[in-house]
Structure formats: structure tokens, C-alpha cells
Fold these 2 entries.
Entry 1:
Amino acid sequence: MESIVELRNVTKHYRDFQLRNISLDIPKGSIMGLVGPNGAGKTTLIKCIMNLTLPTSGSIKIFGKGYKQYEKDIKKKIGFVYDNPGFYQDQTVKNMKNIIAPFYPSWNEQEFQSYRNLFELPANKQLQKLSRGMKMKFSLAVALSHNAEFILLDEPTSGLDPLFRRELLEILDGIIDREKTILFSTHITSELDQIADFITYINQGEIIFSDAKDEILNTYAVIKGPKQSLSSELREHLIGNRKTNYGFKALTNKADEFKNIQDSQIMVESATLEDIVFYYGKRGVEHGSID
Ligand SMILES: Nc1ncnc2c1ncn2[C@@H]1O[C@H](COP(=O)(O)OP(=O)(O)OP(=O)(O)O)[C@@H](O)[C@H]1O
């Protein structure tokens, strides 16, 4: 499968934070969701992919090309949505669009106007007078109007009302039919349930898993049982163990093995993405200890 984005052993060192050894492939024509808690490194990773910050080490190829030689070519084919895109805030929607459009040889004015109407963006309002959600919509309308092959969205739904969030997901889902590739970061796992083909979960600067969504949902399960069933062997397979009134509750990445478990008191349930993210978040503090 052709990869639109290829990261190999990418690191980024800040004083108090490190993005560690990130290797990632985003297959052409797919939607990848990037999820992780606050401060996990999602925006840092996205900035590396956009060449807005230089990795400390490792290599990045977009459309099979490196930024050193092909920055302009690459950037023209990316639609980037985030909440501080460096637009001139004193310009109106219409003027800012006129400044941006010539940068893209494949700018599609008709498409921009149809998104502007759909998003109810007032042409003559200054950007600084738009709400956060409206600014995000403007950024989105720009990103979707120059026939970008790769669309990168950093928390595009933050600041958007639930109705528009849903509409946005439908738009993203729809444009995939036209062979585009999408990476978007979010805190809302239900959005990934709806549209993502692949999920990458990062925590503390490291990829914990990156795989096809269906594969992930098959790999993980939520395990519940009474305290007396919690053998040391069982603990080895549990992630984010939690004490409950009944006994324990945890995640496992060995769902298959638990399907055949002999202990009739242990319950095995399908895990949702929200479960997976929740239990991994608990991992550092509670792994293997409920006593
Ligand atoms: N320019 C910078 N200089 C120093 N540290 C930085 C810089 N940018 C980000 N960081 C740190 O890197 C860590 C990861 O930040 P990042 O914004 O990538 O996380 P995130 O996963 O996007 O978080 P959130 O979900 O809260 O937006 C944080 O601890 C942040 O303080």
C-alpha cells in the first residue's frame, strides 16, 4: 500500500518533553485518527509532519519526498487545519481568501464559495471578529478548496458545536471517496469510531499503538472479575487495572486468549476506543495494582 506520510525514527527534544522514536505510515486514501491525552505530543508530531518545527533526528517523507528539496511542492498538496494558522486577523474572510488563493495553482473558487455558504461564513467580516469555531470553519474551507491530496487537521472539532462536528465528519468521510488521505487529531474518541480507518495513540511522546481500527478493536477487551480471580499470571496481561466494588476491571491487549479463559467468574467484554484510551491513561499509576 502506498504511504502518503512516512516517518522514520523521528525525535523532537524540547527542554521538558521528548517526542521519541516515532515511525509512522499513513496509507493513501485512508483516514487516520491521532489520539492521546493533553501534552502527549500530538501537535508537536503534526508540526514535524508540516515542517513547522524541525525534528531533532529521523526522517520524514510526504508523497515520497523530503522537505529539504520539495517543500513548496509538498505544501501545495496539503490542506492544513488548526486553530492558529497565521491568517491576518485584520483582514476580512474575502480578502484573506484572495491573499491565500494565488499560492495554490489548483485553487477552486467555486468549491471555496460552496463551503463558505455551507459554513455560513460572512465574506465581509474580519477574521478577528469571528468566533473560534468560525475561524476553524474558515481554515477548513481553505484547506478543502485547493484539491489537497493530504488533509491534516489538528483538533478540527474543538470550538465547534455538536451539529457542525457531525457535519464535518460527514464531509471528511465523503472526500475520502475522492482518494484523499486524512490525518486528524482529536480528544473525542467517538469521532474516530465514526470515520477513522487507522488509529494512532500517543502518550508521553511515544506511539503506544498505531494500527487499523478494526484490528485494534479485535485486539483489546475489557476484563472484569472478583478479586480472588486476580492471579499474578492474570495481572501480567492487564493494563490500567482498577479496583471496583465487585473486584477488578482492566483492559487487555490479549482479547483472543481471554475468550477461552476457564475461570467462569471472569467476564470479557468488547473494548471501545474510549475504553482503550481510558485504561492506557491509567497505566502508569495503576498497572497491576488494585490492593
Ligand atoms: N516550542 C516548545 N518549546 C518547549 N516545549 C514545547 C514546545 N511546544 C510544545 N512543547 C511541550 O511539548 C509537550 C507536548 O505538547 P503538544 O502540544 O505536542 O501536546 P498535545 O498532545 O498536542 O496536547 P493537547 O492535547 O493538550 O493539545 C508539552 O509538554 C508542551 O509543553
Entry 2:
Amino acid sequence: MSADDPTAPPARWFELMLRVPEARVEAVGEALEALEALSVSVEDADADTPAERALFGEPGLPAPAPGWQHSRVLALFDTEAQAREAAALLMPQAFFADCEVVGVRPVADTDWVRLTQSQFDPAPITPDFWIVPSWHEPPAAARTVIRLDPGLAFGTGTHPTTRMCLRWMAAHELSGWRVLDYGCGSGILAIAAGLRGAGEVVAVDIDPAAVEATQHNAAANGVTLSAGLPELAQGGYDLVVANILATPLKVLAPLLCAHVGAGGHLVLAGILERQAEELRAAYAPWLALQVADTEDGWMLMTARRD
Ligand SMILES: C[S@@+](CC[C@H](N)C(=O)[O-])C[C@H]1O[C@@H](n2cnc3c(N)ncnc32)[C@H](O)[C@@H]1O
């Protein structure tokens, strides 16, 4: 998508793209967070070139260095002005001397993969519940394992919003529940619900690529679920979980609340700390949201229907 393409969907965020040598990634990442980037992800700037290097250990090969020679650091901002201002503030810094600003580009609402292309190692949700890429052996302590590979759709378990939803599910007894994962991305939350004994799992997303990824990932994990576009969601559920973002969550408030059955739970993520009050107000006509968890400036908000 280009900034001046009149047919492109409206930009939801603006992404600042930087090329950064390995030794500078941490400092640049910290500076971007201090400049209030919504998310910072790191990918191999040399991908698909002869300089490309594996980041994760392949069986039988020595463990690689913990980063790429050059990384592409991608930072999302709400506005183009914020992204350009962050670039302008970084450029004169001593630690930025051998880094390069590649540009600023708009990112559409549905371009969720952009948010997920950070490093992906086995990730613990609880000491015995792990998300493990398919090429890794599960850690010995893992009793419940979700197998996922990055890149198909949002949701590798590395983002705080996903982790908080998974932690909530790990702390509740889901046996026999009817579960709706609204905005399923990779299907990670729906798959977790299936592995934790949910009786019926429905996963929906506006992005057909996410629906396809969810079907693929569910099959790879031996989980039975129904995945489709949002109209697939029908009736009341014991758990409605939605990890989207504050703006769509506010628009979806009546619809999501209508899907929470008697005694059912609503679990919402994708909310920045400063947005908690707006969300509480948007849901107040139907359900009383409470903050249930926080991580890295993000909040998990939940409610239960009587
Ligand atoms: C942040 S990802 C979450 C993926 C996964 N559930 C997780 O927790 O990691 C949000 C997903 O919501 C989808 N989405 C955004 N707006 C939506 C809407 N209005 N209705 C349904 N899905 C939506 C996006 O396509 C994306 O796959």
C-alpha cells in the first residue's frame, strides 16, 4: 500500500521503518518505546538475500547468534506526524549513528501481520502451557502445547495482548464451554480453548486469510472448531474473547455483549492503559468491565453476565 494510492483502504497506523545493526537493536527499540510507539517489531533486513541467517537453532547445527546482522525495526504510531517526529528525534542520537531511516508508510486496519513479525521462540504462558514453533522441541515442562508458526496471521503468543488472553484461559476451567473467539487471527485463542476442554469453539475474523490460518493451525493442533467470517457467530457463549483494538472493540460492544450468554464471560484485549475508561463507558450499557490483567502498557478487561 502506498501513501498516495487512492484505492488503498484508510490507514489505521503509520509505520516507521529503520535499518539497524544488530548491536543497536536494543537501544533503538527502547528509544522507540519511550517515544510511545504502539508496537515495535524486529525482522531480518537481509531476508531473502545471501546475507540471510537463521535465527533459531536447527537440529544438529550450532545455536545461531541471538539476532540478525542487520535488522529492520518497525515501529507503529497512531499518526504520520508522530512517526516522522520519532525519526527526527532518533537521527541526531549518538546510538543511531550507524542506523538508517528507511521511511514511513501507512498500515491498514487489517494488516495485522505487520504487528507480529517479531522474533518467535517458544513462549511460556504459564510454567506448563507453552506456544512452540513447529521446528522447536517443546520444553520438558510443557504439558499443554500450542504449535504455531509465525507469519500466517496475528497471534503467535508473543504479543502481550494475546498472552493475557491465554493466561486468563489457563486460569479458568473451560471444560464443556461454548467459546467464541472474535478476531481470531492465527486462531491461537480458539485453539487454546479447544485444548483446555471447551465443548464447542467458534472462531471468526473479517480477514479471510485469518480464517484460513485458523483452520490450518487448528488441524495442526488436533483441535476441532468452526472458523469463518463474523456472521458464523450465533447465539450465546460461555466465553467471548476478543483481542482486537480499542476502536473496533467500542464499535463491537453491543454485538459482543449480545453473544455473552447467562453466566458467561467477556474477555477483551488490545486496549492500552489510557483507553480503559473509554472502553468501560462503551460497554457500561450492557456489562461492567473490570481490569483483570496488565502487561507492557496493555490491559485485559473482563466482565461476567449474571
Ligand atoms: C490483534 S489480532 C488478534 C489475533 C488473535 N486472536 C490473538 O489474540 O493473538 C486481531 C484480529 O481481529 C481481526 N479483526 C479486526 N477487526 C475486526 C472486526 N471488526 N471483526 C472481526 N475481526 C476483526 C483482525 O483481522 C485480526 O486478525
